[in-house]
Amino acid sequence: MSILEVKHLSKLFGKQAALKDVSFNLGGGEILGFIGPNGAGKSTTIRIILGMLKATEGSVTLFGKDAWDDAVEVHKRIAYVPGDVNLWPNLTGGEVIDLFLSMRGVEVKAARKEELMREFEFDPTKKCRSYSKGNRQKVALIAAFAADADLYILDEPTSGLDPLQERVFQEHIKKVKEKGASVLLSSHILSEVEELCDTVAIIRKGKIVESGKLDELKHLTRTQVKLQVLESVDHLQEKNYIHEFIKDKDKVFFQLDSNHTDDLIREIQGHGIVKFESTPPKLEDLFMRHYSRSSEGDV
Amino acid sequence: MQSFKQSKKLLIFSLKREKIKLSYWLIGCLSFVIIGIIAFVLTYNDPNDRQAMVGAMSNPAMEALFGKVIGVDNYTIGAMYSHTMTVMTLSLISISAILLVVRNTRLEEEEGMIEIFRALPTGKLAHTTSAITLLAIYNIILAVLSAIILIIFGDNSVDVNGAVLTGVIYGSVGLFYGSVALLFSQLSSNSRNATMFSLVFLGLSYVLRIIGDSGFELISWISPLGLLYRTKPFVTNNWWPVLILFFGTIIFIVISLYLQKRRDLGSGLLPSRVGKRSASRLLRTVPGLALNLLKAPLIIWTLSLILLGVTYGSVMGDLETLIAGNEVIEKIIENNPDQNIVKQFIAIILGLLSIATVIPVIQIVMKLYSEEKKGRSVYLLVGKHSKNYVLGAFVALSFFSSVLLQMAQVSTFAAAVMTTQVKGVFFRDILLSGLAYLPALWTMIGFVVLLFGWLPRMIFSAWILLGYSFVILYFSNLFDMPEWLKGISPFYHVPDVLSGEISFIRLFVLLILGILFSFIGFIGFNKRDSIE
Question: How far is CA A125 from CA A128, A183, B296, in A?
Answer without folding.
Answer: 9, 30, 21
